[in-house]
Amino acid sequence: MCGSTTTRRPAPTRVMSRLVLHLALAAYCLGSVGAFMWYLMTSLKTNTEFFSESPWALPADPQWGNYLDAWNSGIGGFFFNSLYVTVLSVTIGLFISLMASYALARIPFRGSQALLILFVVGMMLPAFGALIPLYLLLRDIGLLGTLNGLVVVYIAVQIPLNVFLLRGFMVSMPRELEEAAYVDGASPFRTFVSVIIPQSMPMVVSLAVLNTLNIWNEFVLALVLLPRSESYTVPIGLLGLAIQAEYSAQWVQLFAGLILTSIPMLVLFAIAQERIARGLTFGGMKG
Amino acid sequence: MKTRRYGIIDRQKRRMLIPFLLPALVLYGAITLYPGISTFYMSVMDWGGVGDPVFIGLDNFTRLVRDPTLIKAAGNTFFYVVVGGFILFPLAITFALATKSLRRGKLYRFLILAPIALSVTTAALLWKFAFNPNFGFVGDVFAALGLEALSSWEWLGEPSTALFIVVLASVWHGIGIWMLFFISAIERVPPELREAAILDGANAFQVFRHITFPLIWEMTRTLIILWIIQASQAFGFIIAMTNGGPLGATEVIGTYLYKQAFVQFEYGYAAAVAIVLSLVVVTLTVISRRIGRRGEGVEY
Fold first, then answer.
1. How close does chain A come to B108, measured CA to CA in Å?
2. Does domain B59-294 sit in CATH 3.30.200.20?
3. 3-class secondary structure per residue, A149-196
4. pLDDT tens across A262-273, in order?
5. What is the pLDDT of residues A189-225, one digit of tens each?
6. Are A261 and B119 within 8 A, CB to CB?
7. A94 and A13 in one domain?
8. Same domain for A161 and A217?
9. A22 shares a domain with A96
10. What is the DSSP code string of A202-213?
11. Could you give the ipTM of this predicted complex?
């Protein structure tokens, strides 16, 4: 595309404006990468180096032990809490959403449209609108401060967007395979598991990636619903450690922890960039 | 028509209706709808979480229009929305156009989007520490540029700059998504139009001004409302970077609501704040959907 336009107008102003754009973008990206490199280098320094040397000085002797210290300072626990919460809520959330989407997309019944609208309304409600009663509800049923309580909440908050997108996907799926399964005498549940779910896989994988990213990094609900440090997930745990660092001065360990806990999602992002990009354009639109 | 043709199958399928819908409906109802509705109930109560709530009518709402801290928080939220928007939109449109037309565009796009993989906490702390005058690198950058006065400035410790830095950090974190929105909007502009304009001798800026921009304007309006919705609920970056300080300079509606509810235990009053915030957000969402639907076959 750039070829066709440049051949038409090889004017020097065009070359100049391209150069300016390149420089501006490169500067911006360099800023981002530089900031992250600073994180990375700091995570390998000693606390004395961190305060005495220039921020750009390379670590004299890379302190890989910082990562071990970070892991043992609580981040290991936060990591497994996040893993538990993310895996459970993403898989269960997707399965429940698949079932509901199937009912809404492929079973004709009165009120199907109204139910869909009810789910779509959920995409509009801001988290703050439900936060306080949700906190009290979990407190009353004894799930406040437990990982399982957070799992239940995370499953629920994913449902509207998942149902909205999965239903849309299922409506446009060809009917032949499903009908063939019924003609062969398969039960509706059997058909759902062996025909509908495999056919929905492209959308399921995109949503799984997007949900994983969202839940691994979720902040507001975890902050409110997990008041005790032993059940912290990574984002809240890191915040706690950052506040502690003001007193303990264990800065480099904190930096190591921040890097360490970013790795899973950075890897996921590098692998599934296109899917995340597509999912975010949908997910962001929910408002 | 279809129901008649596949009558038996549909009857068989309809038996699955309740078991298939129930889990989603129960969870959604209990975790989203029920709390959403009870916020209304709580907003007309005086309640600290223990004992019985006392009905006080609209007192919570009359209190919030006279609460100076809340008014300041609303002003800060407004700053967040406006200043953030003025930084976000020009930058996101530029990124979208530039990464589409330049070589290496894909690499830039990857790097611009990458921060979204970091959690709010990590991204917020990254810039909080970077702007720290004692050990951050931003001060050294200013020193290297010869701006000594700025090199020791307490960016997040001074009320005059703290909110601006928080806005910058959160724009940095999320801008990739907005760039993607604009890329998909620009891709809907028929290339013939742009090529015709170029043949007529229009330069890049004229093409953008007279062809691309008018055609993405509908979508841009929707995105602006989407930004207002998001920014009016700003929370994570503020909690992680400044926790509302210094001297309330970065307190926004979200953080104020959170503190009223979970630090002061003023559930009724916090619920009233939540209702006002939610009404604003829901109204804007409905408006954005209206606009979005009017746009030429825009798909979400």
1. 7
2. no
3. HHHHHHHHHHHHHHHHHHHHHHHCCCCHHHHHHHHCCCCHHHHHHHHH
4. 998 899 888 888
5. 888 898 899 999 988 988 898 899 889 989 999 999 9
6. yes
7. no
8. yes
9. no
10. HHHHHHHHHHHH
11. 0.85
